[in-house]
Amino acid sequence: PQGDIHADIVVLGAGPGGYTAAFRAADLGKNVVLIERYSTLGGVCLNVGCIPSKALLHVAKVITDAEETAQQGIAFAKPGIEIDKLRGWKESIIGKLTKGLTGLAKQRKVKVVRGTGRFTSPNMIEVETSDGKKTVSFEHCIIAAGSAAARIPGFPYDDPRIIDSTGALKLESIPKRMLIIGGGIIGLEMATVYDALGSRISVVELMDQLIPGADADLIRPLHKRIQKRYEAIYLKTKVTRIEALQEGLRVTFEGSSEGGGPEGTGAPEPQVYDRILMAVGRRPNGREIGAEKAGIAVNERGFIPVDKQLRTNVSHIFAIGDIAGEPMLAHKASHEGKLAAEIIAGGEKMKSAAFDARAIPSVAYTDPEIAWMGLTETEAKKQGIEIEKAVFPWAVSGRALAMARDEGMTKLILDKKTRRILGAGIVGINAGELISETVLGLEMGADMEDIGLTIHPHPTLSETVFFAAEIAEGTITDLY
Ligand code: FAD
C-alpha cells in the first residue's frame, strides 16, 4: 500500500550517517525522504556531540595555554568568563552548520519529514508529526536512528544536578565541584572543558585505566597531566549510591583494595558534589523504532546487526552508524551512509561492494589528545599476532619542545615480517590531526620504508610519524 508520501529511499534519522546517506542517494537520482524528530538536522554529532564539544574544548585549550605560558615568561591575567556569551558562540556554530544542512537538503530536493518515525510494516513508517500522523511508504530504507546516553539504573535522575553529555554541553552554569562518572572519551572531554572553566573535577572509572580501549602507554601522559589538575581520579572504583541532598549530591563509592582510592587505598569516603556528569557510554536506539513490525532483528544491546553491505536481516532495509554497531563514531556513520546509498542506487553494479575499512581511527580530544587506529598492542597480544613497535618520544621533537608540550609520543605498530604498518597510537597536542597519515598508510599497505623515505616538513609534529618509521628501520640519523 502507498503511504501519504512515497519514497524510493527513506532515511530514518538525520545524523551524520542519515544526512550523508540521504544526500548521496539524492545525488544518484533517487527520490529521498529524510525523517528526523529534532527540529534541526545533524543528529547528535552536530547538535549535542562532536561539534559543540570541540567548540568548548577550543576555548578550554586557550585558557590552559594562557595559564601555562607563564612558564615561558608571559603571564596573562585570570580569564574573565562570560558564560552566556560562550554559550551563544557555541550555539551560533551549531546554527551555521545545521542551517547549511537544511540548504543542502533543499538543493537536492530531499524531503524532510519532522517527527518521530516507527515502522508499521516492512515497507511503511508512520511519523508522529506536529500536525498528526503521516505514513511514508518506501522501496528501500536506511535506518540511521543513532544512540542515546546510557544510564546506570537506580540513581535519582529527576534531580537536575545529575546530567549527561547533552546537559553538560548546555553549559548552564559552572559547578564548583563536579564528579564525572566514566573515564571514557566523552567524560574526559567534558572534564577538560569544566576544569578549564574553573570546576574542581573528580573522575571515577570502573576499569584499571582511563579510556580503557586504548593502549596504556598512550594514556599515561594524559593521566599524569590531569592528575595534577583534577581533585581526584579513582580507578577500579564504582559509584554505588547517589543521594540528592539539599547541599549537594552525596556519592558512595566501592573500590578494589588495590588502587581504587586516591593513593591505592581502596574506595574513597563518601563525597558531596554540586554536579554529576554521567558518561558511562551510549545506548543504540534499536528498540525505539518499531523494528519488530518490519521483522528487523535487534540484538540484546539494542544494535541492529548488518552484513558487509550494511543490510539488516530484511534485505531492502539497511542500517548504518551508531545503531549498526561499534565504534560509535561520526566518521564511521558517514562512510557507511554513503556506501548504503550507493549500494541501493547502484543495483547490480554495486553487487559486490562492501564496507571494508582497514581502520577506523579513534580520537579523544582531551589535552593532550590521544588518537589511535588499526591494531593496538593490547589486541595484538590477545590475538597472538607477532608485531614490532617503534616509539618516538616527543621529548626529542624540536617542535614539541618549542611548543612547551613534549610529553607526547608517537607509536607505530608493524608486521614483523612484511614491515607494513598495522596500527598506530599518538598522544600529544594535535594527535587527532596527526593520526590520518597512519590511516592512509595502513589503507595503502605502506611499510616502514615508505613512511621513512617520505619527506616530512621540519620542524613539525607530523615528523614524529616519520621518525618512528626511521626508528623501526634503524635508519635514524638526526633528532630534533
Ligand atoms: P545520530 O547522530 O545519533 O543521529 C540519529 C538521529 O536520528 C538523531 O537526530 C535522532 O533525533 C534521530 N532519530 C532517532 N530515532 C528517531 C525516530 N524514531 N524518528 C525520527 N528521528 C529519529 N564522534 C566522533 O566521531 N567524533 C567526536 O568528536 C565525537 N564527539 C562526541 C561528543 C559527544 C558529547 C557525544 C555524545 C558523541 C560524540 N561522538 C563523536 C559520537 C557521534 O556523535 C556519533 O557517533 C554520531 O552522531 C552517530 O551518527 P548517527 O548518524 O549514527 O546517529
TrEMBL record:
BP term (GO), one: 2-oxoglutarate metabolic process
Note on cofactor: Binds 1 FAD per subunit.
Molecular-function GO terms, alphabetical: dihydrolipoyl dehydrogenase (NADH) activity; flavin adenine dinucleotide binding
Catalytic function, reaction form: N(6)-[(R)-dihydrolipoyl]-L-lysyl-[protein] + NAD(+) = N(6)-[(R)-lipoyl]-L-lysyl-[protein] + NADH + H(+)
Entry EC no(s): 1.8.1.4
Superkingdom of origin: Bacteria
Keywords from the named record: Disulfide bond, FAD, Flavoprotein, Lipoyl, NAD, Oxidoreductase, Redox-active center
Cofactor(s) the protein needs: FAD; (R)-lipoate
UniProt record similarity statement: Belongs to the class-I pyridine nucleotide-disulfide oxidoreductase family.
Note: The active site is a redox-active disulfide bond.
Protein name, UniProt field: Dihydrolipoyl dehydrogenase
Native organism taxonomy: Bacteria, Pseudomonadati, Pseudomonadota, Betaproteobacteria, Nitrosomonadales
Portion of the parent chain present: 143 to 622 of 626
